[in-house]
Amino acid sequence: MKQRWLTATVLGVVALSGCSEKEETPSLSAEAIEVAFEMAEEQLELENIVLEAKVMQGDEPVDDAEEVVFEVWPYDDREESEFHEASYAESGLYQAPLALEEAGIYMVQVHVTARGMHVMPTQPLFAGEISESEIEQFEEGN
């Protein structure tokens, strides 16, 4: 009797576990997402900058990213970073407005989470009028 009860309990648990929702995990064969900056590296206007990133998976635009956030900081001071959430525009293009208070060289890193993957490419942004010595100093450090 005890053995039948144990067998019935185990079969019941197995049957119920088959009905539970399974979390989707990315397939190892899934093509990686790629992110390309669509913004110009040099911006002369400090108040009307639009940060743009194009998110693709193979030839398909990614229009369902869970998160696209631009992190911006002065190139020599990462602790001063600010985050700017992007919104979906079209055809895999995500945009976020940016207004800077002073000219300088900034680093922009876009954090993209989509389809079970996370990528974080970084690009410099030259905002406003920058002296040749500032550019040389930046290039030496990078």
TrEMBL record:
Tree of life domain: Bacteria
All residue ranges annotated as the YtkA-like domain in the record: 33-111
UniProt-listed InterPro entries: YtkA-like_dom (IPR032693)
Protein known as: YtkA-like domain-containing protein
